[in-house]
Design goal:
With 399 residues, the chain is an alpha/beta fold. The protein has twelve helices and 14 strands. Helix 9 (257-269) links the parallel strand 7 and strand 8 (273-277). The longest helix has 30 residues, at 2-31.
């Protein structure tokens, strides 16, 4: 009898334990969003996916440089440094490399084409060895503007070879096109979730033109219908549009009315940033306003990045840095943090020492060495600052 009572007592305890476990499981599932469903006496848990919120803004930090103008003395010194076998351009760019590479996107105008089957040559019909392109890629440039007045210096074949060279590099190039289909595509580069449309235009090709039977395409500043279509198509597919344009008068620090007119048209068509080249001297940086009230950044000319030209105005150049921010809600683009970064192309001997300095790295001692060559006895840091301040709005100069 006692054994029977003990067995009944144990059975009751087991039943209580099992029932308690079922209640706990039910409570746990209910607390996690589980819903009991009659499916063969099993509980089926319903889960909800975690939601992710998009960033409110996306930003890209840019830096743009002027004319990479490779005179014969520059590639001769590069050949000398390479021991006569190839070309070593590292000295030319070593002082600015860290600055360029610090930005998300860096752009440059490659003033001289790189056509591999031709020998290197200087003024007036330029051609540069591929090692100069290799070096500026190594330094950190991502966007290569090919549209300029020297792009046909080696004819259609040379331009075709230059396109092929840049196609082989980890960069995006703009302003020279293999055919009509290539012309009509949207050129772009992507960074930080932002898609940046690119357009390249030139006002001149020094009286040289493509043969009528050539498939190659160039956009001239007079081709306003093509420019408008390119910008509008890029704007439709991309978050912003960056235009590189070769225009204006050489050695003139004031933009022409034609430059201003085209800048306003391109802004109204959808350009967000316009970077100008060709004058070989500095011209102003400005904000202009498009028809919808948006501010558009225009750098009319950034002067020479590197060259062997020999006047003070032509050795003082610069880069412009800027931040492009897009609101993911409104889709509006804002340009901010615009700064002009002065540079100096320095050389004294001419065949072994051509290099670019940031003005912040340059010294009066270096300026004094160069003063005789550029025929300006007062060339100094003060002279350079005074020259820059007469062209650039103070808001764009670092304090």
């Amino acid at each position: 009898m006692k054994n029977k009572q003990a067995k009944i007592f144990i059975a009751l305890i087991i039943a209580v334990v099992v029932l308690t476990g079922i209640i706990v499981i039910f409570d746990n599932h209910a607390g996690e969003g589980g819903v009991p469903v009659n499916a063969g006496d099993k509980f089926v848990e319903q889960t909800t996916e975690e939601t992710t919120t998009e960033p409110q803004e996306i930003s890209v930090n840019f830096i743009s440089a002027g004319d990479n103008l490779i005179h014969d003395g520059i590639y001769e010194q590069a050949n000398k440094r390479a021991g006569g076998n190839g070309y070593d351009f590292s000295l030319c760019y070593k002082n600015i490399a860290d600055t360029v590479s610090a930005f998300d996107i860096a752009t440059i105008n490659q003033e001289t084409i790189i056509a591999g089957s031709y020998q290197p040559s200087g003024y007036p019909m330029f051609n540069s060895p591929h090692e100069v392109g290799d070096e500026i890629v190594k330094v950190g440039f991502d966007v290569i503007a090919m549209a300029n007045n020297h792009m046909l210096d080696k004819g259609a074949k040379g331009l075709s070879e230059a396109i092929a060279y840049w196609d082989s590099q980890p960069v995006v190039h703009t302003g020279a096109y293999k055919n009509a289909e290539d012309l009509n595509r949207v050129e772009f580069i992507e960074k930080n979730g932002m898609k940046i449309g690119l357009v390249g235009v030139t006002q001149y090709t020094n009286g040289l033109y493509l043969p009528k039977d050539s498939e190659l395409k160039i956009i001239y500043s007079a081709d306003e219908d093509i420019i408008k279509s390119k910008i509008e198509n890029a704007k439709n597919e991309c978050d912003m549009v960056l235009v590189n344009v070769h225009w204006g008068n050489e050695y003139q620090t004031t933009p022409t009315q034609e430059q201003r007119n085209l800048a306003q048209k391109m802004a109204d068509w959808g350009a967000d940033v316009i970077i100008g080249h060709h004058p070989h001297v500095l011209q102003p940086i400005e904000f202009i306003t498009r028809a919808d009230g948006t501010r558009v950044l225009v750098a009319f000319s950034l002067g020479n990045f590197i060259s062997q030209q020999n006047t003070p105005a032509r050795v003082i150049g610069g880069m412009v840095s800027y931040t492009v921010t897009k609101s993911t809600a409104s889709k509006n683009v804002e340009i901010s943090n615009v700064k002009f970064i002065p540079t100096v192309t320095h050389y004294v001997r001419g065949v072994d020492d051509v290099q670019i300095y940031l003005l912040s790295q340059y010294t009066d001692a270096l300026a004094k060495k160069q003063a005789g060559r550029i025929k300006e006895s007062n060339f100094s840091i003060a002279y350079i600052n005074d020259f820059v301040s007469k062209i650039m709005d103070p808001q764009f100069l670092s304090q």
